[in-house]
Amino acid sequence: MLSPNTRLRSRGGLAHFTGLPHVAIDGDAAVVTSYLQILVPQTQGDPVEVPNHGSSQGFRVHRMTANRWELVRTPQGWKIKHRTLRPLDGSEPARTILRRAIASNSRRCHRPRRRAIQYSMAGLLEYDGAAAITGA
Predict the structure, then answer these.
(1) What is the pLDDT of residue 127?
(2) Does some domain include residue 128?
């Protein structure tokens, strides 16, 4: 169920878009890293005509962030343990989130005995055929 604030923002045209997630699953823990952008309707300026799509003033990117979701597998499915969200403004905190995702790739490649699976795709992701994470 959407909160009243979420419904109000949606009516105003605000939209969230997330990039394809990088998902690293290690046993009953997972880390999901992705980009998130928030778009808002452009309310100033002349409308722009796009062939076969009409005209509008378009949208503008309001915010770009790096997201890190730490998940834990429970008997009821995957649950969020912690979320970190940092603006992509060139500062170190956002860069650290993205570096940690890249570093997890190299660590996984050098640990052949440890059961770890990584995904970089949207949609339904399965691990050991028993649990699933959705990209939504």
Answers:
(1) 35
(2) no
Domain that holds residue 56: 4-122
Assess contact for 88 and 66: CB atoms under 8 A. yes
Q: For residues 95 and 86, is the Cβ–Cβ distance under 8 A?
A: no
Write the DSSP string, 23-47. Answer: EEEETTEEEEEEEEEEEEE--SS--
pTM attached to this predicted model: 0.64
Q: What does the H/E/C string look like for 82-115?
A: EEEEEECCCCHHHHHHHHHHHHHHHHHHCCCCCC
3-state secondary structure of 70: strand
- Convert the pLDDT of each residue in 45-60 to its tens digit: 999 999 999 998 988 8
pLDDT average, residue stretch 1-28: 77
Query: Number of folded domains in the chain?
Result: 1
Report the alpha-carbon distance of residue 100 to residue 73 in Å, rounded.
21
Q: What is the C-alpha separation between 136 and 124, in angstroms, rounded?
A: 9
Which long-range contacts does 13-18 make (Cβ < 8 Å, 24+ apart)? 13/40, 13/41, 13/59, 14/38, 14/39, 14/40, 14/62, 15/39, 15/40, 15/59, 18/67, 18/135
